[in-house]
Amino acid sequence: MPTSLLTDLILGIDHVALAVRDIDAALPVYAALGFFLLDRSEVHGEHSGMLYATLQSHEATLVLVQGTSPASQVSQFVEKFGAGMHHVAFAVTDLDEALRRSVEAGITPDTPVVSDTGIRQAFLHRDERTGVRIELIERRDAPFSEHNVEQLFRHLEAKGLY
Could you tell me which CATH class the domain 11-158 is placed in? Predict the structure, then answer.
């Protein structure tokens, strides 16, 4: 893939999602590093069920995710890959164009675009070589949307992906 294919669309890293076994045990580690808790929430679903906590330190945003049952996608991810980076989200100026160029480069989306006020997101297929899933996210001064998080993970759930 040419390195310049999405260069003009990517603004930077929006957030990094870390899969953990226990959010409450992980929070003090990141607090010691200077991160503070922005919010916590829960997504319901047999396979998409998870708890998540959004942490911020200056320009860095981390999202800790924990499965709510052994059948949860996040729990399955931890079982297969261990605790660690679940996905990295790149902020883009134009999500539709970024997706079009990704497909042109042979990187297919695993979810359709999900939208809420001021925020649009999509997951790309997990890279088999690195185990990392990439998310593309277009924001217009909007926080995370519980609706979007739930929809993204439900689309993955419907395909049996984690």
Answer: alpha beta
Residue for token pair 């497909």: 103
Give the integer Cα–Cα distance in Å for 114 and 137. Answer: 10
Are 93 and 101 spatial neighbours (Cβ–Cβ below 8 Å)?
Answer: no
Q: What are phi and psi of 121, to 5 degrees?
A: -145, 155
Residue 3 reports pLDDT greater than 60: no
What gap in Å lies between CA 3 and CA 76, rounded to an integer?
32
H or E segment to which residue 138 belongs: strand 133-139
Residue extents of the structural domains in the chain: 11-158
Residue that the structure tokens 């708890």 belong to = 51
For residue 2, name the pLDDT band (cuts at 50, 70, 90): very low
* Cα R_g (the chain), whole angstroms: 15
User: For tokens 């929430």, what's the residue?
Assistant: 41
> What residues have CB less than 8 Å from 57, skipping those under 6 apart?
33, 34, 35, 36
Task: Indicate whether 136 pLDDT > 70.
Answer: yes
Kindly report the number of other CB atoms within 10 A of residue 85's CB atom.
Answer: 14
